[in-house]
Amino acid sequence: MDDPRWLSPQEQRAWRAHLAAHRLLSHQLDRDLQDSGLSLNDYEILVNLSESPDHRMRMSELADATIQSRSRLSHQISRMEAAGLVTRMNCEDDRRGTFAVLTDHGWTTIQKVAPGHVFSVRSHFIELMTPEQVTALEEIYKPIIAHLQAIRPAR
Amino acid sequence: MDDPRWLSPQEQRAWRAHLAAHRLLSHQLDRDLQDSGLSLNDYEILVNLSESPDHRMRMSELADATIQSRSRLSHQISRMEAAGLVTRMNCEDDRRGTFAVLTDHGWTTIQKVAPGHVFSVRSHFIELMTPEQVTALEEIYKPIIAHLQAIRPAR
């Protein structure tokens, strides 16, 4: 570490662009969701549950799918439970823990909010790229995600 | 909004890859910084101050540079002040508000921590791309960042 290989100007611009784009985008999407009372994190959880069989997922699976710790997810689910969007459920014949389940209110909420959210993602992200860039972005991130998933500590 | 243009599978993969890469990467960089007692956000603030004349920036400039609200930055600076990394300072001949200033401890900390952090950014991000992809990533994000900065509400 005595003679660190600092980032080149180009590498630094790419790294800072990734950070800035993500931060600006998540602020904008949160603002666009504001009227619905959902945060971007809430939205992501509702989508995951709505795409699962019986609209439910194990808490551990949901934590993996949304890339956060069990304890952080647990706080978030408590807030969403208070808002009537999800409930927790213990499955009698399955000792592997608690499920998060979409409520009817959660299901109508995600159906109502999804079109506007997709419109936001389109206008602030997808439509500012060429189709080739959309493909390139996935290609760029695929090995980075695989690497980071592989070294991720057990949770 | 009655007939939303849902994302195509390719568009959805690109969007989710952006989100997943950012979340995994920020968790990993936070873990790599853990021994230093800094979070990725702390690090970013120290870098911004260390690159500024006299190691200081107006709070409003620092909030812009790190893309966060004044109130969120203010809480963060309070925590970093308690850790002895920065101080707040009012400039007598300048009524435009408070400055955040790097302390000597903040300056030695960033010098000590920077080589390891750059190594992390290299090994988990930069080195998993070809030089062409590094350039492509900046090119992809440039118009997205410009668009989002332009529509960002006044803070």
From TrEMBL, chains A, B:
Pfam families attached to this UniProt entry: MarR_2
Lineage top rank: taxon: Bacteria
GO BP term, example: response to stress
Gene Ontology molecular function: DNA-binding transcription factor activity
Ranges for domain HTH marR-type: 1-146
InterPro entries in the cross-refs: HTH_MarR-typ, MarR/SlyA-like, WH-like_DNA-bd_sf, WH_DNA-bd_sf
Gene3D superfamilies found in the cross-reference section: Winged helix-like DNA-binding domain superfamily/Winged helix DNA-binding domain
Matches recorded under PANTHER family: MARR FAMILY REGULATORY PROTEIN, TRANSCRIPTIONAL REGULATOR, MARR FAMILY
Name of the protein: MarR family transcriptional regulator
Organism: Microbispora oryzae
